[in-house]
Amino acid sequence: MPDYKAPLRDMRFLMDEVFDYPATYAAIGAVDATPDLVGAILEEGAKFCEQVLAPLNRSGDEEGAVWKDGEVTTPKGFKEAFAQYVEGGWNGLASDPAYGGQGLPSSLAMAIGEMVAAANTSWGMYPGLTHGAMSAIHAHGSEEQKQTYLTKLTEGRWTGTMCLTEPHCGTDLGIIKTRAVPQADGSYAVSGTKIFISAGEHDMSENIVHLVLAKLPDAPAGTKGISLFIVPKFNVGADGEVAERNGVSCGSIEHKMGIKASATCVMNFDSAKGFLIGELNKGLNCMFTMMNHARLGTGMQGLCNGEASYQGALRYANDRLQMRSLTGPKAPDKPADPIIVHPDVRRMLLTMKSLNEGCRALGYFTAQLLDIAHRSPDEEKREEAEGLLAFLTPICKAFMTEAGLEATSLGMQVFGGHGYIREWGMEQLMRDARIAPIYEGTNGIQALDLLGRKVLGSQGKLLRGFSKRVHKLCEANAEHGKFKAQVAQLAKLNQQWGEMVQQIGMAAMKNPDEVGAASVDFLMFSGYVVLAHFWLQMALVAEQKLAEGSSEKAFYESKLMTCEFYFKRILPRTAAHQLALAAGSDCMMQMTPEHFAV
Amino acid sequence: MADYKAPLRDMRFVLNEVFDVASLWAQLPALADVVDADTADAILEEAGKVTARTLAPLNRSGDEEECQWKDGVVSTPAGFPEAYKVYGEGGWVGVGGDPAYGGMGMPKVLGAQVEEMLNAANLSFGLYPMLTAGACLSIHAHASEELKQTYLPNMYSGVWAGSMCLTEPHAGTDLGIIRTKAEPQADGSYKVSGTKIFITGGEHDLTENIIHLVLAKLPDAPAGSKGISLFLVPKFMVNADGSLGERNAVACGSIEHKMGIKASATCVMNFDGAVGYMVGEANNGLAAMFTMMNYERLGVGIQGLAAGERSYQNAVEYARERIQSRAPSGPVAKDKAADPIIVHPDVRRMLLTMKAFNEGGRAFSTYVATQLDIAKFSEDAEACKRGEQLVALLTPVAKAFLTDLGLETTVHGQQIFGGHGFIREWGQEQLVRDVRITQIYEGTNGIQALDLMGRKVVGNGGTFYKLFSNEIRAYVEAADAALGEFTNPLKAALDNLDGLTEWVLGQAKQNPNEIGAASVEYLQVFGYTAYAYMWARMAEVALAKQADDEFYVSKLGTARFYFARLLPRIHSLSASVRAGSESLYLLDAAQF
């Protein structure tokens, strides 16, 4: 199986050289996060992920999480790894110091999160969900709730979950059936069944804090009648420690295609004691505050699987000998050449590399926006960051996970038949990557969110917020000696982007189906343009470093060359998306449901 | 998971209404006697029953149980041995086999439909008869009369099964470097020794004997691919009276744990001085494999289609039943809490993409199969040669393009199910896992693309390509103006492919790397253009009959979707081809 090596050089390139994280950290008052400390944290995080988590990835997949009589056992080593993670202080890295956290920037936590999920996606789900629950409690919980739950969650003694989906509703939460009945003591009795609850039950922590969406008996219909509740697995005694078991239990776990070591639970709430968090009937809003973060995190999973797959494929392509190069033997002393000499193997590797590094740039830029939006003292900067976040979040989630699936599939293909065999680890990465386009809002839903709510909903303003940055970058480099052609290519696409939105907007006024008909192609088009923007930005930095006589010539040259590959061989994909969406909705909507199966 | 239902209506549409295969059969003496439209119809009907009733119900359980290896013995999942018996006794293994040895003698174009049903019902199971039929093809084409008499009848009837032993641990794509050795013996037989991996059906409990076809080298063989010979190595020796004798020195060392097709035993086979018989001429083993390769590769392409069809059937049922959110244009199912998801444009986009690829793939694989039949059965030398050249050209497209689209289709089918698509019991994720192997085995899709561009297009200066291109152009030019909405974009796509082919022929002269750099995207442009040809021909029939039956309305709607939303992909792919190989060779190996 592929050994994981954290791509620290590329991470630092983005954090320090392309996006200037240190300046942001200074501006948001994260004075502790000096470049030296950040460097040390990343090094330590890399060690933990490479040495503790990565070795549990294949065995975790084979063993899976196991359910018996309501108890869930995680694979061997998972529990110990979580204890080490907590001891290392990783869990509260970016949490509020008032509740025991270290208060470091969330972008730094995301960088650690990248290494965690690349080393072991399944394992990463447990702290990942905990962080989601912590954000929700931090943003919406009462002071008492924070003292009771957030401190323990930050400490890593307890973990958290998000309980949204029910058997009959995933995307459409307005129709949930879980009920919360007010009790005399101010608490609620929560009853209902939730499915697909990641980390709903496991053996890694002494308590599990569920955040549950439910409706009051007299709640308005639809999404405006949903409230959010804290429901602990064990009730909390007056001393703040776990007391008797609450009325919540795990009915079974799912048998899945991938992320098998992550327990995906059916959770039964049977008059479980719950506590309202946030305002009544505002439960969905509470979820939305943490959604940008969670969706960026899911997008990062796509990148993580793609990165792990690339590392495996690259090693194999250098080792595996098969056939001679078309231009003559490259390893004449061996019976055949390493397969990296073959153009099609290079095409696959470069596709992976250019998608991975492009997605990493998008992810790290977006993480920086989260820091600014949450912590900048400058209101204007916060507002600008919020606008960009609203626009980029669905692209991060959907485009990065589509790219992750493509990259992991290519990584398998580089291995030939061995790619299909479990012990090599490449097929697991594809199976693990496959969930990311589905959960946390399917990619179809992300596309609707991007085009419908964000772009058209703002009359194009949110798109302009980003496209004007593209415009500026292109304008400033229009006569650049090296990148002139790429700049022209990007400028043209940037213009098409705006025109496309106008056309869809016009069509949608007459026919609301036009939005859904165009949305996925629009999102993919957007993703390729956004990556082109970041590739150009990275290439400009690399060019400058080379001009300054950097000693890391190979690294920066590799950036330039990968950029060139991206513009020549990947960016043309925009044409197909543009043409497909220009064809409109008629050819999709004319057929009756019966016509699909005659 | 929906019950599998063989798409017989669409198969009949393609066979009878689009390609009129019965007229072709009537012109080919070897087929005229054995098959006509009625016989074909009865065969399809029966194949639909056996696959849906006997094989489809074993698909999920087979995946969960997997094959088990213990002490050299492989057990297939519950129900598999009985099902193989039923399938063999029905004559399905030998559906395309020579009647002189007990085969049914049916044309490949019918065999292709049977293969689709077989693989859609149960891809893991399907590999056992498919490998057996492939081994039979090689034996039939190259073995001595005695070997044919001894082995073919029992293989056709499903009493014995076959395997193809090519790959070794260090050699998959590059068979020139295999190490398995064959020592000549005084009695004319050979002692075969070596290790083969990834041997599908190498060991199992379905049949009383397994007949391995093994690539090996004679002690004095020339180096490389010109020194490979083919040997028949039975698991149990066969006595003069046809009964089984002692165990031969071949054993299964282990089986692989795979992503999918888990009920298909993928074996490590150890040959330790096993008795073998040469098939065909010495050092000509690869050539002997190539005769069956076109059949096998088309078969693998059909596996891609089959998985896509199964996924589509499940997805349509789910999309019509699952209610979630309201239609953008207002509630459709007002009495329910939400609308069925088939009202949502993006769900339709996914379903129509699947439908257009499946039906396009069915037409294209059927078209290629008719060319195989012409090449094999025509008595007109010209027609035969044309058939052979078209087969050579189109086989790599059928293998790679249908399997690439099989993955895309099954991924869409999984996506429509939302979270449930990731859960094993719903069956959609298994189809993704199962179909993923088809892009890899039987020559990876990268190798298919090299074969297409290097050997089949550049290798003959574009002669084979011209045959196909001219056929499409003649069709476009002769087409009725009323068909313009389909033939105009088809013509534009063909012009594009012609231009791209010219470009490729020119580039290849200057830099051999250009072939490998452009090959995968070139194959895909070729595939989308070929499907456009298929969709125009299907639309032509449907346009004339749309008043008769909703089937034709659906066909036309799908054709329109294909031209509007899928064919435009050729523009991106062509731009990528024309970007050339340069950007692939900027980085040295260390810079990756």
From TrEMBL, chain A:
- InterPro entries assigned: Acyl-CoA_dh-like_C_dom, Acyl-CoA_Oxase/DH_mid-dom, Acyl-CoA_Oxase/DH_mid-dom_sf, AcylCo_DH-like_C, AcylCo_DH/oxidase_C, AcylCoA_DH/ox_N, AcylCoA_DH/ox_N_sf, AcylCoA_DH/oxidase_NM_dom_sf
Q: Which UniProt keywords apply?
A: FAD, Flavoprotein, Oxidoreductase
Top-level division of the source organism's lineage: Bacteria
The record's top EC class is: oxidoreductase
Instruction: Spell out the molecular function terms from Gene Ontology.
Output: flavin adenine dinucleotide binding; oxidoreductase activity, acting on the CH-CH group of donors
Which cofactor(s) does the record list? FAD
Segments forming domain Acyl-CoA oxidase/dehydrogenase middle: 162-271
Ranges of residues in domain Acetyl-CoA dehydrogenase-like C-terminal:
467-591
Q: Which reaction does it catalyse?
A: 3-(methylsulfanyl)propanoyl-CoA + oxidized [electron-transfer flavoprotein] + H(+) = 3-(methylsulfanyl)acryloyl-CoA + reduced [electron-transfer flavoprotein]
- Give the EC number(s) listed in the UniProt record: 1.3.99.41
Q: Where is the Acyl-CoA dehydrogenase/oxidase C-terminal domain?
A: 281-449
Query: Domain Acyl-CoA dehydrogenase/oxidase N-terminal, which positions?
Result: 41-156
Family membership, please give it. Belongs to the acyl-CoA dehydrogenase family.
Protein function? Involved in the assimilation of dimethylsulphoniopropionate (DMSP), an important compound in the fixation of carbon in marine phytoplankton, by mediating the conversion of 3-(methylthio)propanoyl-CoA (MMPA-CoA) to 3-(methylthio)acryloyl-CoA (MTA-CoA).
Name this polypeptide is given: 3-methylmercaptopropionyl-CoA dehydrogenase
The organism's lineage is: Bacteria, Pseudomonadati, Pseudomonadota, Gammaproteobacteria, Pseudomonadales
Automatic annotation (TrEMBL), chain B:
Under SUPFAM superfamilies, the record lists:
Acyl-CoA dehydrogenase C-terminal domain-like (SSF47203), Acyl-CoA dehydrogenase NM domain-like (SSF56645)
Top-level lineage group: Bacteria
> Which InterPro entries does the record cross-reference, listed alphabetically?
Acyl-CoA_dh-like_C_dom (IPR025878), Acyl-CoA_Oxase/DH_mid-dom (IPR006091), Acyl-CoA_Oxase/DH_mid-dom_sf (IPR046373), AcylCo_DH-like_C (IPR036250), AcylCo_DH/oxidase_C (IPR009075), AcylCoA_DH/ox_N (IPR013786), AcylCoA_DH/ox_N_sf (IPR037069), AcylCoA_DH/oxidase_NM_dom_sf (IPR009100)
Q: In what residue span(s) does the Acyl-CoA dehydrogenase/oxidase N-terminal domain sit?
A: 41-158
All copies of domain Acyl-CoA dehydrogenase/oxidase C-terminal, residue ranges: 283-452
What reaction does this enzyme carry out catalytically?
3-(methylsulfanyl)propanoyl-CoA + oxidized [electron-transfer flavoprotein] + H(+) = 3-(methylsulfanyl)acryloyl-CoA + reduced [electron-transfer flavoprotein]
Q: What does this protein do?
A: Involved in the assimilation of dimethylsulphoniopropionate (DMSP), an important compound in the fixation of carbon in marine phytoplankton, by mediating the conversion of 3-(methylthio)propanoyl-CoA (MMPA-CoA) to 3-(methylthio)acryloyl-CoA (MTA-CoA).
Matching Gene3D superfamilies:
Acyl-CoA dehydrogenase/oxidase, N-terminal domain, Butyryl-CoA Dehydrogenase, subunit A, domain 2, Butyryl-CoA Dehydrogenase, subunit A, domain 3
Give one Pfam family: Acyl-CoA_dh_N
Q: What class of enzyme is it?
A: oxidoreductase
Q: What is this protein called?
A: 3-methylmercaptopropionyl-CoA dehydrogenase
Q: Which residues form the Acyl-CoA oxidase/dehydrogenase middle domain?
A: 163-272
Keywords (alphabetical) are:
FAD, Flavoprotein, Oxidoreductase
Q: Which organism does this record belong to?
A: Pseudomonas mangrovi
Q: Which residues form the signal peptide?
A: none
Give the family this protein belongs to, as stated in its UniProt record. Belongs to the acyl-CoA dehydrogenase family.
The enzyme's E.C. designation: 1.3.99.41
Q: Where is the Acetyl-CoA dehydrogenase-like C-terminal domain?
A: 468-586
State the needed cofactors, names only.
FAD
MF (Gene Ontology): flavin adenine dinucleotide binding; oxidoreductase activity, acting on the CH-CH group of donors
